[in-house]
Write a structure and sequence with these properties.
Elements lengths: L2 H4 L3 H47 L4 H12 L5 E12 L5 E11 L15 E9 L1
Helix pairs in contact: 2-3
């Protein structure tokens, strides 16, 4: 039997085994990329809203949430935005506003398939003296 005849179909088997793994690696990379992009956008929006609240000396969670949503825009990929804020006085007598923003990233790909890669929920904290 010739060597060529013995290897007939080997490419098909390798493709059948390797292609799903390659697709999974690509989808995981896109998934992580979208999570990192959304985390960066949420961090920027939270820092901006915290600064606005500190300037206005108003740690109202509704106003901060509105400022975060305005900064994020419509295409942020952040679902279920939850914002909490508080004001406190530190040991030196300086008032500060603390903001926590949490959202679920809507990656649009993978769904439950990529759930084992990690949580799609991100949390960002910001603090600013006033």
């Amino acid at each position: 039997m010739s060597r060529r005849r013995r290897q007939r179909g080997a490419i098909s088997v390798e493709l059948a085994i390797g292609l799903p793994l390659l697709v999974l690696v690509i989808m995981a990379g896109v998934h992580f990329g979208l999570i990192l992009k959304t985390r960066h956008q949420l961090g920027d929006a939270t820092n901006h809203a915290t600064r606005l609240a500190a300037i206005a000396k108003n740690p109202n969670p509704a106003a901060i949430r509105t400022a975060i949503q305005d900064r994020l825009g419509a295409n942020a990929g952040c679902a279920n935005l939850n914002v909490t804020s508080s004001s406190a006085r530190d040991a030196f007598g300086v008032n500060r506003v603390d903001v926590n923003a949490r959202c679920t990233v809507n990656t649009g790909i993978g769904g439950q398939l990529l759930g084992f890669l990690g949580s799609s929920e991100i949390t960002v904290r910001a603090s600013m003296p006033f």
